[in-house]
Amino acid sequence: MGNSRMTVREIAKLAGVSVATVSRVSNGTGQVSEEMRRRVLEAIEKHGYRPDHLGRALAAGRHGALGLVFPGLSGPYFTELIQGFESEAVPSRASVHILCTHLRSDADDQVLEMGRRVDGVAVIGGTVSDEALLRLATMVPVVVIAGEGPGDIPSVRADNAGSMLALTRHLLVDHDLRDLVFVGNPAGSPDVSERWAAFRGAHHDLGIDPPAEPVAVSMQQADGVLAADQLLCGDTPRPAGVVCANDEIALGVLVGALGRGLRVPQDLVITGFDDMPAAALVTPALTTVRQPVRELTAEAARLILRAADQPGNTAAGSLVLPTELVLRRSCGCPAPPTGGTGR
Question: What positions does the domain HTH lacI-type occupy (predicted)?
Answer without folding.
Answer: 6-60
